[in-house]
Design goal:
Radius of gyration: 21 Å
Largest sheet: 10 strands, mixed
Number of strands: 12
Strand content: 15-25%
Shape: globular
Strand order of the largest sheet: 2-3-1-12-11-4-5-8-9-10
Length: 316
């Protein structure tokens, strides 16, 4: 088994080649385009080096030069882990002292990953964010469970909650996963921890099982900006802050990973698509998790650093 760690670097300094989604669009377009942009930029650098930095020749056949760059030249392998592309953790991601920032991370667990594995995934995701930003802690860590979706209309009608794109997570699996976040909180790595897409009914079932209660519940209010009164009252009663978002639940489907990393027209050439792709990794690719991190300068309200890490496993 080979683990792939995909990264976007800081998309706030990525230039116009990164396509950012409109604030109102619920989509994973930002993630996908940022991963592709960072991969292409890395391939381009090594393609230029491979061609002696001759810009005139490079510009004439840019596509074929990048296609000819083996993935081993612009990625880094550490045992069974490959960073796609290579990551330079020696450079700090922030310009000012840690105290000047509000740092938030949202961890998306993807379908078909067990609760026991997610405990390891949570540790790994936070380690990568802390390493990237050169900070000892983040202010808020929010977890998103697969298949869990908040519906404002259902909340108002009967308190029921729904799943999105598959079987909803059961409360026992959520509780087991939450233990990992509680551990990160107790170690001082995440100063606050929160959940996503929890209506009042799910919160009522979940809260008694926790040692450290979520300080935040992040919900997607579809087609409007009105949070149901029942949830507002319950959250206030329990001391939980309600926030809204427009993220996808299944932010990185399996087919999307293969498209990004395969040998297709827009692929990075990391995964083999056929027997002819001798340099590519062979096997089934299974996305595990995605973490989005944001560092906001407190006194200016400006996002200085924003990016993603994503992990997938390639199994023979």
């Amino acid at each position: 088994m080979t683990k792939l760690i995909l990264s976007t670097s800081n998309i706030m300094s990525g230039g116009p080649s990164i396509i950012r989604r409109p604030a109102s669009e619920k989509s994973n377009v930002e993630l996908i385009n940022s991963l592709r942009s960072n991969t292409e930029a890395s391939k381009e650098v090594f393609a230029q080096l491979n061609n002696g930095c001759d810009d005139s020749n490079y510009g004439q056949d840019r596509y074929h030069q990048k296609r000819g760059v083996p993935y081993s030249t612009w990625t880094v392998r550490e045992d069974n882990v490959i960073y796609v592309p290579s990551v330079d953790f020696s450079q700090s991601g922030l310009a000012e002292e840690r105290s000047q920032y509000d740092i938030t991370a949202k961890l998306f667990f993807l379908p078909d990953t067990s609760a026991s594995n997610r405990c390891k995934h949570a540790q790994e995701a936070i380690r990568l964010v802390l390493q990237e930003l050169h900070v000892p802690s983040i202010d808020l860590l929010i977890v998103s469970f697969p298949g869990v979706s908040f519906d404002a209309d259902d909340e108002d009608l009967d308190g029921s909650e729904c799943s999105d794109g598959g079987e909803a997570e059961d409360i026992d699996a959520m509780t087991e996963t939450w233990r990992a976040l509680e551990q990160l909180h107790s170690e001082g790595l995440a100063l606050q921890i929160g959940v996503s897409e929890f209506g009042s009914e799910r919160l009522q079932k979940f809260l008694p099982r926790t040692k450290t209660r979520p300080s935040v519940d992040q919900i997607n209010v579809r087609d409007c900006c009105v949070v149901p009164k029942s949830l507002i009252l319950y959250a206030k009663q329990e001391g939980i802050e309600l926030l809204t978002h427009n993220d996808c639940t299944n932010i990185l489907p399996r087919g999307t990973v293969r498209e990004l990393l395969g040998y297709g027209e827009n692929g990075a050439g990391v995964l083999a698509g056929s027997e002819k792709d001798l340099d590519g990794l062979k096997g089934e690719v299974e996305p595990q998790w995605v973490v989005k991190y944001t560092a906001v300068v407190r006194d200016r309200g400006v996002i200085e650093n924003k990016g993603y890490f994503a992990v997938a496993e390639v199994r023979d």
